[in-house]
What does this fold into?
Amino acid sequence: MLNWKSTVAAATLALGLAPAAWAATEIELYFPVPVEGKLASEMKSLMERFNAEHPEIVVTPVYTGNYDETAIKTRAAMKAGNPPAAVIMSANFVLEYQINNEIEPLDPLIEAEGMTPDSYIGQFWPALHRNAAFAGHVWAAPFHNSTPLLYINADHFRAAGLNPDAPPATWAELVDAAKKLTVTDGTNTTRYGFMLPGGYDYLGWIMSALAMSNGGEYFNPYYGGEVYYDTPSMQGAVQFVDDLVHVHKVMPEGVTEGKAVSTAFFAGQASMVTLSTGSLSFIRENMKDDYRVAFMPRNLRNAVPIGGASLMMPKGLSDEEKAASWTLITWLTSPEISGHWSRFTGYFAPNKAAYDLPEMKDFLTQNPDAQVAIDQLAFAQPWFATYNTVAVRKALEDEVQAVLSGNKTAAEAVKAAQATADEILAPYVAQTAFKLQD
Amino acid sequence: MQQKTAPMMQTVGLLAPSLVFLVLFTYWPMLQSVWQSLRIESFGSDEVTFGLGNFQRLWTDDSFQQAALNNLVYALGTIVPGIVIALALAVGLQEATRLNAALRAIVYFPVLIPLVAAAALFSFVFLPGIGLLDWHLAKLGMAQINWLGNPKVALWSLIGLTVWKNAGYYMLFFLAGLQAIPNDLYEATRIEGAGVIGRFRRVTLPLLGPTFAFVFVIALINAVTQIDHVVVLTKGGPSDSTNLLLFYIYQQAHENLDYGKAAAATVVTLALLLALSLTSLRSLERGVHYES
It folds into this structure.
């Protein structure tokens, strides 16, 4: 492929025909759209702007579905020997690419710009470091990030005699408020005090927020072969969710997908919901009632995992492609672009300097709800990333779904989840913690 | 000698174009799956051995057993009502009147919607409390049902959607089958004094035998290969209650990167599908032909 291109290029040169445009490096950027909103068309216009500002590079943005689909398409492209130059990858999948030796460390490119890996990663919020820089190298550049937030319907709060400007800060206050907000009609509940998304992916994230708020850690952030499912902090979190459904009856039984949760919130059938900061703009545009945004309530401490995506560079690129990819990555994570994307989507900007820009300051004055997301960052923790992340996450999700459906107790669920997860992690553990390394 | 090779060459020549594509895109991948299913690789080692290890791991995987069981329930739940409804519709709408033509078009309509689009539509129909289904049920005084979020209900919601989607398609085959039944048979039974039910049981049903066998095979293949709604609506959840074989294979291959187990599951699924199709196609060729 490359040889063919360079032959043509050489021939063009030899004939003295070289127009200025031939030298442009053509690269592809794979990007996912993980939340509701017009993110794909905005990404397209951003890339048009990048191409106009960088005549030496031509970037083709390729929309690759949600995070999981993006990972699949990236792997397929790598296997076919035609990797994209940059991918916006779910931040917690980066570890697996590193484990499988499929991505380039960014250190040489960082050092070529006169920075150290530490000073480079230092530009980003501290909570984001662990998912991007580990095993002694920088592997990814944070692009857009999120945390779970509590969204409340202020009208419902007032009607129930609660103060919408003092939303529940603890689990106990959440239960109390949810009870007052739940409306029943005979045996039928017409309005639920609280809802959380129970589908795959979202549920694992929310459960890690609850386990962390309960003093736990969910996974070992320093080693991808360990998860803490069968622990008091996780069991307490699962018990809390179980009680919300089956004891306090303020949350619907069974699984409610993320989309159904936001729809119920818009329709006034759920008074409080936990959703991503990435949904903030979507909710701002679609919510007719007065609403507020608050921290995830705590039991033992304030803590939430980060979410979102980072830019990474697959192996197998030429030097020109690497350089072009690095220019693109630097541009996309610059304070200006980072801030612009943040205002458009609701994700927070990973680059701290984005918040020093005047347009960002104006935006935050006009949208105090976005400020809450920034404030919660002080309590943010790394996102679960292990060997075989999706399967390990699903091990817990299947069990919590069984609890939500009233088929298992919290104690049974965490025990079973731990057993399944350990089995999935076993091949990795055997090659790492159980083996002397060279 | 030459007389013999010429038609042979002609046959090969005529078959060649489709054979090339069949070999490239059907038989070759099947062989590769079998090959892959026997390859045993482990993390952190380049060593490859061959054996039945992937199949052993498959049998002991609870998720696989669950998916196989779900697929059985799903197949029975979609095929039996699908065929019964399709037959009823075909018998009811077989007279070529203008009203019937319009009704047939209406019944056929869901077939025209791609399954993935139908699933996206039904994500709103199934919304608990707010969705179309619950909205109408609430008017009848029924409680909310979490159609996709209750593990006892979710698979049946998908079955309902599939029956709605496919009944019109199977109706077409039954309509064609009904056209092929000679009228004099009905006249003969009428002279013999058989009633409507008698005629249906003694003439229509037996003569539709080949159609049944054909529709059964098509419906069976659909039950294994059409899983867009699982991907769009449930991702196999809650707690694997809507996981079907093909989605399980997808999860093993793309989520868990366990290509060996995925290939083993593919081989098992293919073998089952082939065996069932062959049996029903054979019974189609045998016994079910009636001379008028």
User: Anything to note?
Assistant: Chain B has one domain: 51-285. The longest strand of chain B covers residues 39-41. The mean pLDDT of chain B is 87. Residues 59 and 65 of chain B are 7 Å apart (CA to CA).
